[in-house]
Structures are given as C-alpha cells and as structure tokens.
Amino acid sequence: MPGALALTWKIVKDKKLDIKNKKALLLDFDEVLGLNLAKIRKPKIPQKIKKLVELREKYRQEKKWAKADEIRKKIKESGYQVEDTKGGPEIKIFL
Predict the structure, then answer these.
(1) Predicted confidence (pLDDT) at residue 80 exceeds the cutoff of 70
(2) What is the C-alpha to C-alpha distance for residues 94 and 79, in angstroms, rounded to an integer?
(3) How far apart are CA 71 and CA 65, in angstroms?
(4) Are 34 and 59 in a shared domain?
(5) Could you report the per-residue pLDDT of 7-60, keeping only the tens digit for each?
(6) Residues 29, 61 within the same domain
(7) What is the CA angle 92-26-12, rounded to 5?
(8) 54 and 88 share one domain
(9) Residue 84 pLDDT class (50, 70, 90 cuts)
(10) Among residues 1, 18, 30, 82, which is most buried (max CB within 10 A)?
(11) Do 27 and 6 share a structural domain?
C-alpha cells in the first residue's frame, strides 16, 4: 500500500503528464485503492464570500490596499482564503 500511494503522488506531481491523463490514471488506481476520488466535488463557495472577494478586488484596482487587506482578513476569518492569480482571484477553503 505505501508503494501504491507513493506512485500515486508521483503521478500527481509529474509535470510531463497532462491533466486528462493524470485524472484517468488516478481514477484507475482508485478502483484498487478505494479512495473514492471520483466522488470528490469542488466545495461550493457561499455568496457572502464571493461578494467579499469582489469588493476586495474593487479596492485592489483602486489601489486602496488597507481596505483590500481588511477584506482579506474578513474572508480568512470566515474560513476561506484568496489567492491572486493572473486569471483573477481564486477562493479556497482555508485549512
């Protein structure tokens, strides 16, 4: 089992494999490992958090950094985090 999990992580981290092939391999492995990976769903982000992220983005565009940081803190206190990416802000559950 440890070897199978190590190989699974190796596939996840492999930059040469495209996402479609990784997913197919991992789901095949999952049939043996029984991790129920196919049942994992992306968590739904509450509308309240989405609105806070939009407000924070507005403040960032206006270069009101203190207000943007204040909103980020509120988001974090609610159990989420915002990552700024080239494609815009991404909301993740804060662990």
Answers:
(1) yes
(2) 5
(3) 10
(4) no
(5) 889 998 998 988 899 989 999 998 888 888 888 887 899 999 999 999 999 999
(6) no
(7) 55
(8) yes
(9) very high
(10) 82
(11) yes
Tokens of 94: 């804060």
Query: Do both 25 and 53 map to the same domain?
Result: no
Q: Please list the alpha-helical segments (H only) found in the chain.
A: 2-13, 19-33, 47-61, 65-77
Per-residue pLDDT, 5: 87
Write the DSSP symbol of residue 40: -
If one counts the domains in the chain, the total is 2
> What one-character DSSP code corresponds to residue 92?
E
Element (H, E) at 78: none
CB atoms within 10 A of CB 9: 9
Domain span at 25: 2-39
Is residue 91 over pLDDT 90? Answer: yes
At 73, the amino acid letter reads K
Paired strand residues for 88: 85
Give the per-residue pLDDT at 95.
Answer: 63
